[in-house]
Each structure stands twice: as structure tokens, then as C-alpha cells.
Amino acid sequence: MKIAVLSRNTKLYSTSRLVEAAEARGHQVRVLDVLRCYMNITSHNPSIHYRGEDLTGFDAVIPRIGASVTFYGTAVLRQFEMMNVMPLNESVAISRSRDKLRSTQLLARKGIGLPVTGFANNPDDIADLIAQVGGAPLVIKLLEGTQGIGVVLAETHNAAESVIQAFMGLKANIMVQEFIKEAGGSDIRCFVVGDKVVAAMKRQGADGEFRSNLHRGGSAELVRLTPEERSTAIRAAKIMGLNVCGVDMLRSNHGPVIMEVNSSPGLRGIEAASGKDIADLIIQFIEKRFESLETSKDKLPKARARTRGKG
Ligand code: ADP
To answer: Pocket of ligand 1, candidates 151, 179, 189: which has the most ligand atoms within 8 Å of its Cβ, to mutate?
Structure first.
């Protein structure tokens, strides 16, 4: 197969592992900087240009789109989809998962366990918002935050009020959440490929830190999932429409609660903790999916097969 990897940097661990795994399985791979792609949006012959070259002939595309380039990155991916190139994760699913409000509402609607969560744009009654999620201690999150930045634990009602007021003064969008104390500063990352959790790790925050992000000095170890955790991760991935993702959850007194579903999960931490070749599993998944799409295309009448995947 001819595979494109949309990534801003070929040297990133996850990008280079995917390239390595695809080449090892005999594929032709090319890393493309998504911001350097430019497009011609026509209904009959959509195309993508890259440094003056017309990109053609790709069978599949692996999006590794960073949070800061979601808008343009998903537009480029959509263009590949219009050209009938099979995406590992679809652009619409990536956009969905990048919107914390939208994804929380989608998961809640399908009955997935979540921390009690409140959203507000500009509440006149901050005390009521705090009461809605069960009072302090509580967690306040910036909607635009990643890697644990913008996640604040307010231990008292007064602290919560001041932090919420401060964020609102800055016109930041926030989410207010029940603090899952019993998680003890750890969370679980389930790595989903297709309809399976292929590896899972427990991340523990540094001493005295309630955030478990590896970027914040946390450490990771292999963990055995309960059947409920496993099925919650698989359901969450399905609801978001992601074929490959990292589902982050906390172990709460009322079962697993989902923090986030990440559409470009890093490979370094999970490969190190599990000892598994996750990149190879992803490429195998692409091969199988491509083959089954090709087979179903053959079964369709020709006119329909040609329009498959467009739009
Ligand atoms: P980001 O997307 O920036 O990583 P998260 O919402 O995943 O932000 O929060 C970062 C970390 O903070 C989580 O992995 C978890 O360890 C901790 N955390 C977040 N929300 C809660 C909560 N409601 N209760 C307890 N710990 C939390």
C-alpha cells in the first residue's frame, strides 16, 4: 500500500515508529506536513498539492494532527477522504473528539460513566454552578487545555469561586467537574485499535500531584483492566467513531469514568509500558480495513463504488 502520515515532524517518536512499522510490512510511506498541504476543492477532481507536487495514488492516510492545528489538519484530511483515500480515523471523528463539550455530551447521552460535570459561559450564579457538581473540592478545566495545563484542583468553595471568576474574567471557556479523589492522582490509558483494547497503562502523577499526565512528570506502568473498564473503553471509542484512540479513564467509587478520548494517542509511553509493538498493530489494522473496503467496493455496482467515501 501507499500510506501518507500527516505529521508536522518526522522525528517524533510516534511518527517514526509508524513509518518504521509500515515499511517493515512492505508499504511505501510518506510523511507530509499538514500545514504545507494546499488544496483544490472541486467536486469532480479534488486534489492536494505539496510543495508544488500533485499528491496522488495514496491508499490510506494516518492523521497525527496536533491539537493546535486541528482546524486546518482536519480540512486536509477531509480532502484526502474526498479523494477516496482511506483515513485511519475520519476527520469528523477527530473534530468531535477535540471538542470537550461535544464529546462529553455524546458520551453522557450513551450512558458512559463520567465525572459529574458542569459547563458555563457566564453564569450569574457561580455558587449554584459549584453546588451542581457537588461542591468543593472540585476540578476546573480550561476547554482549550492539553497535557494537564489549565486543569486546577480547587480544594475549598472560596478557592473554586475565585478560580472560576478569574478564568471568566479572561473570557476562557471552562468546565467544572467533581473531583475523583479516590483515583489517587492516577488514571488509566486504554489504547484502542479497532474493537479491541490492545494495551493499557496506569499513569501516576508525581508526588503530591493530582494530574497524572506524563508531561507533568507522571510515571506509567502496565495495568490489568476489569471487564467493565475494557468494555467502557471500546464503547467510548465507538461512540466517538474513532478506529484508533487513547481512552483515558479514572477509577472512581462508581466505576470507570472517562476523562478524554484522544484521537492521536502517543506511542512512546504505551509501547514502553506494555512492551508491545503497537505501531505494527495499527498498520495491520489499516491493511485489514483497506482490504475489507476494497472487497465491499467490488460487490457494489460500479457507479456507487466510484462515489464511496466522498462527502
Ligand atoms: P488534559 O486533557 O489537559 O490532559 P485532563 O482532563 O485529562 O486534561 O486532566 C489531566 C489529569 O488531571 C487527568 O489525567 C487526571 O489525572 C487529573 N484529573 C482530571 N480531572 C479530574 C477529576 N475530575 N478528578 C480527579 N482527577 C482529575
So the answer is: 151
